[in-house]
Write a structure and sequence with these properties.
With 188 residues, the protein is α+β, with helices and mostly antiparallel strands. The chain has one domain. The protein is 29% helix and 39% strand. The strands form two sheets. Strands 1, 2, 3, 4, 5, 6 and 7 form a seven-stranded mixed sheet that branches. A two-stranded antiparallel ribbon has the order 8-9. The longest helix has 18 residues.
Length: 188
């Protein structure tokens, strides 16, 4: 990554990347280092022949809570996770037609302690509503460590982790050559 890229600069690039599909809102908080939120909503329907004959519908929501901190330690991790969990639980509306809600906690930090990264990798929070008939809630966590250009995530947060890795690669100028398919013996 470029030398001198600060958390604020990375946050701006991340929000720019999220803004294509998500609604972005910048935050200022005194007690919690929450700097921005992003929300995504998707509604799918299936119908037979005409739209009035709707057979099913499913709503999917994703809320991203972005925290910017110099050093991610275990106390800050626990405090931010609890903040995300309480905010996320309030955003879920488990009605019939609700498929899932993903609550993403994204940390942008200069460095992180080993115990905080270990807790981040092990973190799991899943909630089912009426035996999943009214959907479920799943918590994803990821941390971008700017000092060593590393991304750490839990099992559920793999997509967020991959997204952040691609953003780090793009900012560092290391573009990968993707091979789409072969024609004859040549790769295109």
């Amino acid at each position: 990554m470029e030398k001198g890229l600060s958390r604020t600069q990375f946050l701006d690039k991340a929000l720019e990347a999220y803004s294509n599909w998500y609604d972005i809102e910048r935050k200022t908080s005194i007690n919690i280092p929450l700097v921005a939120t992003a929300s995504f909503h998707e509604h799918q329907t299936g119908f037979a022949l005409v739209r009035k004959a709707e057979m099913w519908s499913a709503d999917r929501h994703e809320y991203v809570f972005i925290y910017s901190i110099p050093t991610l330690d275990i106390e800050t991790f626990n405090k931010c996770i609890e903040d995300t969990r309480s905010r996320g639980d309030k955003l879920v509306d488990p009605v019939f037609g609700h498929m899932c809600t993903n609550i993403v906690t994204l940390f942008i930090c200069d460095n992180a302690t080993d115990d905080a990264l270990k807790a981040l990798k092990k973190y799991r929070y899943i909630k089912s509503f009426l035996f999943s008939l009214k959907g479920w809630l799943d918590a994803h966590t990821a941390a971008v460590i700017l000092d060593d250009s590393n991304v750490c995530c839990n099992f559920s947060g793999r997509q967020t982790g991959e997204f952040m890795k691609k953003l780090l690669l793009r900012l560092s100028g290391e573009q990968k050559q993707y091979k789409l398919f072969k024609i004859g013996g040549n790769k295109v």
